[in-house]
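thought: fold this chain, then report.
action: predict
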Amino acid sequence: MDWRTNPREIQYRISENSELETASLQTVQEFHVGNSKFVRHEANVDFSSNKINDLSKIRAPEFRKEKHFFRVLVEGEANLYSLKSRGDEKFFYSTDGGDIEQLIYKKYNEGDGKIKYNTGYQQQLWNNLQCSEISLPQINNTEYTLKHLEKLFIDYNECKNADYFIYNEKSNPGRFKIGIKGGVNFTNFHLYQDGYYVKPDLYTVVYHKGSTILKDSEFEPQIRLGLELEYILPFNHGKWAIFLVPTYIPYKTEKEVFLPGGRGIDPNPVRTGTIADFVTFKYSAIELPVGVRYYLFLKNNVSIFFNGGAGYNFHLNSSTIEDFGEGRTRERPDFEVATGKSLSLLFGLGYTHNSGFSIEARFYPLKEVTDAGTFRLNHNNSFSLIAGYKFL
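observation:
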């Protein structure tokens, strides 16, 4: 399972075709998975929390006798272990085959609002790792972290000329992947405007917010091209990843819309007082989505993945040009779709092969193009078909 916390039981098969069996703390003394080793011990475990909102009011550790599978980090004349449970990572040690004991490190608050620290582990290390090459300043500079404690136990075993083994090397370290993504967006068109209009009686002025000028349900194809940066998280056998995909998207379409004229826009819509025109809309944007991806591994080097994320769309330029026919065009400053940035959500389902190739269907429930200006444009419920290749 590539656990983030120490397991309470394991599932295994004797052979590939045998039945799945379960072994627990009551039946297993130790087990190895890849370069990881777990051993069963019963030890005093400080159950007080190091979380700021749950700090104990006393300095002394609050021990409870517990049985766990402890992860072995360094094994030799002096052994280092870790236990991740209840949101904290605690370290333990044993020497010369003796009992396992917790290295004491505890945050506490006596009620005066000040956070204090019990760093008893440094005295424990000084008492139990005496060697000519281990100095008191080195002990005092050893922090309560895997990196610092692991180095100290390695130094001690080397000082004692003892055989030792390091088990903490990750079987699945986090890693980056880079690839290209290209495809087609299928977008619809929703143009709306805030403003005022005069009712046909010529006496009543009405303010309307987000009045729809044109909502087209037809999905038009637009190209997209991007670069994908993916980080595979170092747990759960690489099933989880975080991705960032900067993507360039050009957009162009021609629509018949009813533009302001005479007495203004009637949001009912009543076409009296409006002018119908063919208008060409153009913009280009950089889409910058960030999200989480989950891989479901199948056989034959194939996997299915699920995406979810959000991101900003940065609009590089934007214009609308009114077409009067016969090749004559002119820009309408009063009908310009504003540039800027906007937010979009995305959900995707895809297929990938270990060779690096992938395909994906991605859905955008709402994709704002502009959120300011005289006129505003959205693509609602749009979707994309995307192909990709990871070359690193």
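thought: worth noting. The two ends are 26 Å apart (CA to CA).
final: tokens above.
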